[in-house]
Write a structure and sequence with these properties.
Blueprint: E1 13-14, E2 23-30, E3 37-48, E4 54-62
Antiparallel strand pairs: 1-2, 2-3, 3-4
Length: 76
């Protein structure tokens, strides 16, 4: 069974393509006021505090027009 993306939900997957981030994902967020969907890329990194507690740092970036899938390129 493949992963099914839903509005306002995302699953972080291990990034095996490059060394820019440890995890990556896509998410579509629905505005609570106007119900408009906006697509974002999510990047995650494994981090540790000075005390040694582990956490995941996340970054969201809006998708550009025409960006699709894991490669970011529009389909041919």
């Amino acid at each position: 069974m493949s992963y099914e993306r839903r509005k306002n939900e995302a699953g972080l997957f291990v990034n095996t393509r490059n060394d820019k981030s440890d995890y990556d994902a896509q998410i579509e967020i629905e505005c609570a006021h106007c119900n408009q969907l906006t697509s974002f890329w999510i990047a995650g990194w494994n981090r540790a505090t000075r005390a040694g507690a582990k956490y995941i740092s996340l970054s969201l970036r809006p998708k550009k027009v025409g960006e699709h899938g894991r490669t970011g390129a529009a389909p041919a």
